[in-house]
Amino acid sequence: MSGNYGVYSQKQFQSISTAISMNKNKIDRPYIYYFDINNNIVQITEVFNDSNKKSNFDDAVYLGQLKKFHSASIKPIPKL
User: Is 51 left (phi over 0), alpha (psi -120 to 50) or beta?
Assistant: First the structure.
C-alpha cells in the first residue's frame, strides 16, 4: 500500500528529547502529531511511505495510515 504510515517509539522519543536538551539536534519540537485516517490526532516519532517498513526501535508501535500533518510542538498538546 502507498501512503504515510505512523510509528511511535518511546525509546526513540527519549533519544530525540535527550538530543534536544543537549543541543545536539537542530530539531527543537519533539512532539509531532498527525491525523490518522479516522481523524484522530496521534503522536508519532517516524513516518514511513511503505506499510512493510520496520522501525529500528524494538518498542515501536505501528499506528496505521496517516491522513495529514497536524503540528509539531515543544510541549505535548492537551488531551481533548
Answer: alpha
Q: How many C-alpha atoms does 70 have within 13 Å on its Cβ side?
A: 19
Name the E strands within 1-80: 2-8, 31-36, 41-44, 46-50, 61-73
- What global pTM score does this model have? 0.82
Regions of the chain with pLDDT less than 50: 1
> Which amino acid type is present at position 73?
S
Which residue's C-alpha cell is 514511513?
A: 48
Beta bridge partners of 2: 50
**What pLDDT, on the 0 to 100 scale, is given for residue 65?**
96
**Sheet with 61-73, side-by-side order of all strands:** 41-44, 31-36, 61-73, 2-8, 46-50
